[in-house]
Amino acid sequence: MSEIESANASGGALLSLRDINITFGGVKALKNVAFEVHPGEIHCLAGENGSGKSTLIKIITGVYRPAPGAIIEYDGQTYSHMSPVTAQAKGIQVIWQDLALFPEMSVAENIAFQTVLGRWPRLVDYKQMRQLAMNALKRLGVTLDVDLPLKEYAIAQRQIVAIARALVGEAKIVFMDEPTASLTQSETNHLLEIVRNLSASGVAVVFVSHRLAEVLEISSRLTVLRDGALVGVYPTEGMTQSRITELMTGKTFDNQVRATPKDHQPVVLDVRSLSRRGQFEDISLTVRRGETLGITGLLGAGRTELALALFGMTKPNSGTIMLDGRPVRFSSNRDAVQAGIAYLSEDRLSLGLIQPQSIADNLVISSLRKILSGGFLSDERKESLVSHWIRELGIRIGRQEDAISTLSGGNQQRVAIAKWLATDPKLLILDAPTVGVDVGARAGIFDIVAKLAESGLAIILISDEVPEVYFNADRVLHMAQGRIVGSFDPRQCSLHDIEAAVYA
Which of 26, 239, 393, 483 has the most beta carbons within 10 angstroms of its beta carbon? Predict the structure, then answer.
């Protein structure tokens, strides 16, 4: 473990854990893990899905109790385990990816509601709540109307409300789980500046993110977990994204441009002057058989809105869509599916999959006609169809009847892709297919995309992460403010060329 670095921060650790073990159902989720954070430090906790990151955080916050022998030192005191009450009282706060906020309540109520919790009922002092909320937001350098319902604000502002709530709880250390997953580049920059301000004020921040560029930009050290074990603790200075990926997965990934010419292939999708008022304007593009067309740009550029129009979810005001040389007009997404278009939503949790239902039910839900026999659903045909796609896409499952929620993010995404491949599409639209998916699983998903293109499937790959489209698409279109403003051939330009255009 020669690469493990000793802490370079001055003074002792605010939080230090040693000999952390925990077992679920006979499987060791954490194995002799050590972890420490210093006051005011921005520290990254890195690892693939299933590596033990969330389990470690839940031990620190008292949700889980580690096996006997664990040592937790926090703010000068030693514990064998934490309780949720102790963790909160001591200033340990977690902002989970779903934020755990209340959309119908006001901003002030969301920020300060913990101040009215207790063993006995009492009257709510709304004036005090407003003042606490405004003080917390002022500390972050943010101005929001604290009387408005939270649902009136976008995800970026809700993220700030969650941070303000942690400050009201007198946080000494804040864990942030994928805080930038749904933010635009400018919103991300603003959030990272807030994190720096928290650090400067003495609040330690543990940053959990699959966006490795942000990890390198914001943190001074990173702790890497793999399969529930500690790989090492490293300074971020001099670290690269590829090196972090190798540490997280134990594998070497060789990013190479996959673009190949497809000019000789027939056109599958031909879009001409397509517009939808307030969302996108004058969009013209083609996608050929076996071609992967990348579309990138900042969030809010109109990429998803364009995808929804192509999939029949919304109707354009003008322009034409031609599929295999014939004009089409879709009254609904059902028409689009019947015509041979499939759409993988960027919101896997609420739109792409039905979490409580089984893996098998999720996979066949878009192709029920294929498993009919005599007018009834055939269990035999269902099992055969599901087994085929699980095998084809290398999906790791326990049993087909297990809930889809039991799978990792990467395997859930493979099921979501399989669900649409089972419809035998001509065109597959992938909207941010790696959101919430770790780096190792991302590589597997893009291997699948490449094989699908080789088989002749036309693909539109939408992503706000420029490297994803640069390395995995044959052509890249840049959208901004609802228009296509640039076109790039990855074989003839550099990654920097596209990033400079998108982030200018």
Answer: 393
Going from N- to C-terminal start, the domains of the chain cover: 1-91+172-249, 106-170, 267-340+425-502
- The pLDDT score that the predictor gives to residue 10 is 37
pLDDT, tens digit (0-9, with 9 covering 90-100), for 279-325 = 999 999 999 999 999 999 876 789 989 999 999 999 999 999 999 99
CA distances from 70 to 18, 34, 172, 378 (A): 6, 10, 22, 51
Residue in the structure block whose two tokens are 């579309």: 295
Give CA separation, 280 vs 276, 289, 376, in Å: 5, 25, 43
Q: What is the DSSP letter of 232?
A: E
388 vs 386: CA distance, rounded Å: 5
Q: Domain 267-340+425-502 in CATH: superfamily?
A: P-loop containing nucleotide triphosphate hydrolases (3.40.50.300)
How crowded is residue 77: how many other Cβ atoms within 10 Å of its Cβ?
A: 9
Token pair recorded at residue 59: 């031990």
What's the CA gap between 184 and 200, in Å, rounded? 24
Which residue's entry shows tokens 């599929």? 323
Distance (Å, whole) CA 487 – CA 157: 33
**CATH 3.30.470.20 for domain 1-91+172-249:** no
Say what the pTM is.
0.69
Q: Which two tokens stand for residue 361?
A: 């039910």
pLDDT digits (tens, 9 = 90+) for 382-408: 999 999 999 888 888 888 999 888 887
Q: What span, in angstroms and rounded, lies between the C-alpha atoms of 348 and 148?
A: 29
Read off the pLDDT of residues 170-199 as tens digits, 9 standing for 90 and up: 889 999 988 876 666 667 788 888 899 999
Distance CA 479, CA 490 (A): 16
Helix axes of 185-200 and 155-168: crossing angle, nearest 10 degrees: 10
**Digit-coded pLDDT (tens) for 361-370:** 999 998 888 8
Supply the DSSP string of 434-488, one letter for each residue. TTT--HHHHHHHHHHHHHHHHTT-EEEEE-S-HHHHHHH-SEEEEEETTEEEEEE
